[in-house]
């Protein structure tokens, strides 16, 4: 075990430092809101008065000033650079968010995505001018279909949840073609599933029926059989599941579903654990979304730009939505409308105005081609190895609900904190003081005070050891009775403990000028 070095400060140095006149702490600069440092009455640029023109806004033109604060160019640059320095990102440290797969984004991928032929194209360009982009989409589709063992693909979904909607819409279309859309209205969802699973099913008009997990965290065939009936349309199953465990009976579950005329939707959020090792199609999946920002390293977070392609089995291939790419001789054509689909196809409709997120397609294919099949397989193996290294090194100080093993992420519960006066949230906040983004907490809901850690394959043993040692030190401090260290955390962040419940329920979305007292 690697112990963190202990630094004993003299009493005078250990005391909290006196506040500075500016509020800054050396390079930690206190940065106000832009409205507090600028003024709506001034501007950093000069514009000539526009000539009188006839409005074409039909009465929707602005009647008041926009109200933006005016800053000079140096002030503007400093403001946003200072804000950026407060960000935590995968480029500054390990991002151990379980269920999120926050992995390194290789710069080679970024370079490829910025090539003019990909970065500068427009979705309304004539097909003959974007043949290279369509060829790339075709090649990306080939890789994804090969890795998943599926028969058809939709590239247009914009994210994982959008992909779920696509896959479940294809299932709904298949049921309509079978004349069973009105009778099969139930979707089975394990209690440990991502929240988007039941939300997607409900949004499409299905009723959700929960499937309880076994004591070992997996779903049993018997539990699925007990939940089946003539009213069941599909089951949405994540594999590996949200507890970080591979579903060992998934093939039997798929067979039981198919015997009952039920489709299996596989949530692909955790594909990073098995890509190159096993194909979901071989396990019986009928539909699966793929988070390109997880498994294939395209940028994650910030609300986009996202991409969540969906692969479909032979049973659902005909219902893939438009648009999709079709090769005709040496040329590529986009099938934009259902009426233009080839014979045998019955697209359920259109999910988005255009064809998908080209920048994400380029990045994902660059990742696949630079790694190759063996590299993708090794990435999966390394992700599982790293998670199990974290599990093994923390097993004596943290508590695990399912200690037998883990896939790409390891799950801990809060039993080790009982009697300490420290909660899971307190523990996570204290990690911020140590310079780490906390792990996912309180999810999955099937485990009390859950702490879900996913290191991904990006992390070296050195970075893992530093993170693990910090977690160990915090666990020992909590057990030693140092509760104040946790309940007051974070103490060293730009802002200390915030009222997150109030912020969620009563968000302030626009600047309110303080009234003088």
Automatic annotation (TrEMBL):
Residues 181-301 form the Aminotransferase class V domain. Residues 379-474 form the Glycine dehydrogenase C-terminal domain. Its EC number is 1.4.4.2. Keywords: Oxidoreductase, Pyridoxal phosphate. InterPro entries: Aminotrans_V_dom, GDC-P_C, GDC_P, PyrdxlP-dep_Trfase, PyrdxlP-dep_Trfase_major, PyrdxlP-dep_Trfase_small. GO terms for cellular component: cytosol; glycine cleavage complex. One of its GO terms (biological process) is glycine decarboxylation via glycine cleavage system. It catalyses: N(6)-[(R)-lipoyl]-L-lysyl-[glycine-cleavage complex H protein] + glycine + H(+) = N(6)-[(R)-S(8)-aminomethyldihydrolipoyl]-L-lysyl-[glycine-cleavage complex H protein] + CO2. Residues 496-517 are annotated as: Disordered. GO terms for molecular function: glycine binding; glycine dehydrogenase (decarboxylating) activity; pyridoxal phosphate binding. It is an enzyme of class 1 (oxidoreductase). The glycine cleavage system catalyzes the degradation of glycine. The P protein binds the alpha-amino group of glycine through its pyridoxal phosphate cofactor; CO(2) is released and the remaining methylamine moiety is then transferred to the lipoamide cofactor of the H protein. PANTHER family: GLYCINE DEHYDROGENASE (DECARBOXYLATING), MITOCHONDRIAL, GLYCINE DEHYDROGENASE, DECARBOXYLATING. This is glycine dehydrogenase (aminomethyl-transferring). It comes from Rhodomicrobium udaipurense.
